[in-house]
Amino acid sequence: LQADRFDPDHAYVRQWVPEVDGPEYPQPVVDLAQSRRDALAAYDVVKAAKAAAN
């Protein structure tokens, strides 16, 4: 992640989003790994349909 690379101690984020360290900070709404798998699967379907049409 870019934040881990450029702000490894997360000082910048804590400065501007202090609630990130607290219990009231919400959990992610979307599972990014699952969303990526879904998008790649949908892309494969479209790519296969296009190849079959040619």
UniProtKB/TrEMBL annotation:
Which Gene3D superfamilies does the UniProt record give? DNA Cyclobutane Dipyrimidine Photolyase, subunit A, domain 3
Q: Which InterPro entries match?
A: Crypto/Photolyase_FAD-like_sf
| Name of the protein | Deoxyribodipyrimidine photolyase
